[in-house]
Design goal:
Distance between the termini: 39 Å
Largest sheet: none
Number of strands: 0
Structural class: mainly alpha
Strand content: under 5%
Order of helices and strands: HHHH
Number of helices: 4
Number of domains: 2
Oligomer: single chain
Helix content: over 70%
Amino acid sequence: MEEKTIASADQLIKSGKNPLVKTTMEMIKHDSGKHKVMLQMIIDNLTKEAVHLSPDELAPISALLNKHMEVEAKSIDLANNALKKSELVITRHILSALLDDEQKHHNQLHTLKEELKKATIFVT
């Protein structure tokens, strides 16, 4: 399905003249490309070698995740402030999409950290 979404987005990008539509379709196309990578990882994890993480690997990864979460939090603050000040519909649309992505990234990193902590408890 992601291939169909990418093809459809490409068609709209090539045929469209409106920059808002083109940009929105580029965002959707990019997300679909990420989805393909994510789905392939699931397939590989189930059919090849399962991804694993040792307790010794957790500390450095956790520190990097914390640092990146700080960057994401700053991005969220900046986007929120810009959104509050913006009165233009198109600017608000793009800023809202950006803010949604930044909040999603922040939440994903938090969840990953928590899941990694739990997973290493069971590793011996």
